[in-house]
Structure formats: structure tokens, C-alpha cells
Automatic annotation (TrEMBL):
Highest taxon listed in the record's lineage: Bacteria
Phylogenetic classification of the source organism: Bacteria, Pseudomonadati, Pseudomonadota, Alphaproteobacteria, Hyphomicrobiales
Pfam families per UniProt: BLUF
PROSITE patterns, alphabetized: BLUF (PS50925)
Protein name (record): BLUF domain-containing protein
Residue stretches making up the BLUF domain: 7-102
InterPro entries: Acylphosphatase-like_dom_sf, BLUF_domain
Amino acid sequence: MSAAAPFQRLVYYSRNEVDGDADALDAAIDEILSLSQRNNAQADVTGALLFNTGCFGQVLEGPRRAVEATFERIQRDPRHSDVTLLAFETTDARAFPNWSMAYVGAKPAQAVRYNEIAASSGFDPSRMTANRLLETLHGLAMEKEA
């Protein structure tokens, strides 16, 4: 990953349009993560993804054009609807420098934290701020990294 700054940081949420049971959702998330990790590593994009059956929340960081191109792909992806931009800003440091795409919320300990977020926001993403989503994803990714 490039160490040059500044970077762009984009925070968004979207509604999940993946149909099916838990196995179908797991398979869809595995596919999203695999493709994201490969594509993001090539494009010098880092970030983290939070998912529940209703919504995606994600942070993307990197060079402006790469972040914009990644976000445009997400907006065209039929697995997402109501894609809502919460923040698009310049930053001098990445929050996820070691993650082409971290996925948080999979472990039971993370599920407890995730449930706290859901309780405070009803995991109604329209009630979650960009900073709150960024802080949550960053905290969970750092726990996973440790």
C-alpha cells in the first residue's frame, strides 16, 4: 500500500438486496470480500465492511480516482440499493492501512459490539453518522488485527 498522502476517505451505507437464507448471505459476503480484497489491493484502496441482513456500511480509503471508481462499482452492484454517501473527505492517514478490505462483525465478541450499535441506532443507517461508522469499523478491525 502506498504511504503517500493525502488520501480520500469515503463512508457510505446501503440496503442489502441479497436474497436467501444464511448460507446464501454468507456466500455473497465471501464473494464480495474476495473480489474487494483483490481489486482494492491492486487499486491501493483500503477499508472495512460491516454487514447485517439489512444493510452494508463501509469505509473506503485511497487515491481519489481509485476510491471514486470503487464507489461507482458499488452503486451499480445489484446487491446494494439506496446507496447513501455519508462522507467523502481528504485525510492524511488511513484508518485501515493494513486492510484491503477488513470485514467486521463475524466473531461472537464483535457481534456483541455490533448489537450495541444496532441498539443505539436501530441499525437504521440513516441515523448513523459517518464518524460513528468509521470509529466502529476501525475499533473492530483493530481488535481483529490484534
